[in-house]
């Protein structure tokens, strides 16, 4: 460790851990020796991820919870502290998406998306930071934003707004707590091969054409695998990124460079 901002997370809480980037991050961190607190509303898939993590030799606690509810943050951190004594890494992967024009987005749809994508991140980050400050411990936060938080995209008014808010909240956390050894960074993926993508493509009139359009939008010529995003998250949690805080790393195959 170096003086100043530095931390190596060893017990990491992951929201949205039941699938996609969250599950891939859990698998990678397990292989790297992290103890894990896995949080998701989907208890069935969460159990499978936890079983796989434990089969690899890692320790894991699970919490079935809706991250938009205030009590869920305390329950998740309680589970981690009870199981492992500390939680010093946080990855917020839980999110939902709707694809609708602004004028067709209902207030209920807007509120539900913001409650998960923004309020859920705020609540768990607030509880995580409070406990680290009380204990005088360092820690590392990696919040998942998106290319949609950097550029405007058609039919994504609610989602773009939510991911932009996550990026700005993360910068604020980083600046506010830098001298206390708490780092906060953002990973902003492009399109990722997940169940959410499969659902989106399945709803298109021509799924194959829609997939090819996504490939063409990324200069690298394809979409990401969840494991590729997980590797960047792991870097930001670990000692090799000890002087990185308040950063937003685009993992987008060049999408936002066009």
From TrEMBL:
Pfam families: adh_short_C2
Keywords, comma-separated and alphabetical: NAD, Oxidoreductase
Keyword NAD (UniProt): yes
Domain of life: Bacteria
UniProt xrefs under InterPro entries: KR_dom, NAD(P)-bd_dom_sf, Sc_DH/Rdtase_CS, SDR_fam
Ketoreductase domain segment(s): 10-193
Matching SMART domains: PKS_KR (SM00822)
Transmembrane segments: none
NAD listed as a keyword: yes
Family recorded in the similarity comment: Belongs to the short-chain dehydrogenases/reductases (SDR) family.
Protein name: SDR family oxidoreductase
Organism: Mycolicibacterium goodii
